[in-house]
From TrEMBL:
It comes from Vasconcelosia minhoensis LEGE 07310. This is DedA family protein. The lineage of its organism: Bacteria, Bacillati, Cyanobacteriota, Cyanophyceae, Nodosilineales. Belongs to the DedA family. It is a multi-pass membrane protein. GO terms for cellular component: plasma membrane.
Length: 204
């Protein structure tokens, strides 16, 4: 995969960076932790401009986020609630919980979108609930773009500094990514356990 990524950037330049970052959002095994540090390394060698590399990576990544947003929107809140009512009893979820989550996301969720865009492992999929909650596009795009710029610029700069050791950035980030995912799983399990011990009152 590394050779394929390297060839795409060498052949297509900024377009290759943008396309790879789009694919990274659609096909998670393609890691941004390799794409953007490699672009940073290319910038350090004078083959790419650092600013334009960050711009291209951001454009591709935000395009991928928009794709998942529209998938969530097409799925729709009604369909999500039906799925939760049908299968959610196994984890003590109901359509009422979906309504609560939707209200929270619409009221306070913009910052969550921006934050999740810099967290490995979850940065891609935050767009789905934003889509089915029909979060306002301007807010979603703004916060998603800000978070993406931070993530992309960090990776690109790391590759710029590390030079031909740019691959090491994935080694550094991998433990953080695992820790975040384990933490999210633990928080979910804890929440489900609390729900089972203290089921919500049925609506009056």
């Amino acid at each position: 995969m590394l050779e394929w990524i390297t060839n795409a950037i060498a052949t297509l330049g900024y377009v290759g960076v943008a396309l790879l970052m789009l694919l990274e959002n659609v096909i998670p095994p393609i890691p941004s932790e390799i794409i953007m540090p490699l672009a940073g390394f290319a910038a350090a060698r004078g083959e790419l401009n650092f600013g334009w590399a960050v711009f291209a990576g951001t454009v591709g990544s935000v395009a991928g986020a928009l794709l998942w947003y529209y998938i969530g929107q097409a799925l729709g809140i009604v369909r999500v609630k039906k799925l939760v009512d049908r299968y959610g009893r196994w984890v003590s979820l109901s359509s009422r919980d979906v309504d609560i989550a939707q209200r929270w996301l619409l009221k306070r969720g913009y910052w969550a979108v921006g934050l999740c865009r810099v967290i490995p492992g979850v940065r891609t999929y935050i767009s789905i609930p934003a889509g089915f909650a029909r979060m306002k596009m301007l807010g979603f795009l703004t916060y998603s773009t800000v978070g993406t710029v931070i993530w992309v610029a960090f990776l690109t700069y790391a590759g710029y500094l590390l030079g031909d050791n740019y691959e090491r950035i994935e080694t550094y980030i991998a433990p953080v990514s695992r820790a975040v995912i384990i933490g999210l799983i633990a928080a979910t399990v804890f929440w489900i356990a609390r729900r089972r011990m203290n089921p919500p009152e049925p609506p009056g």
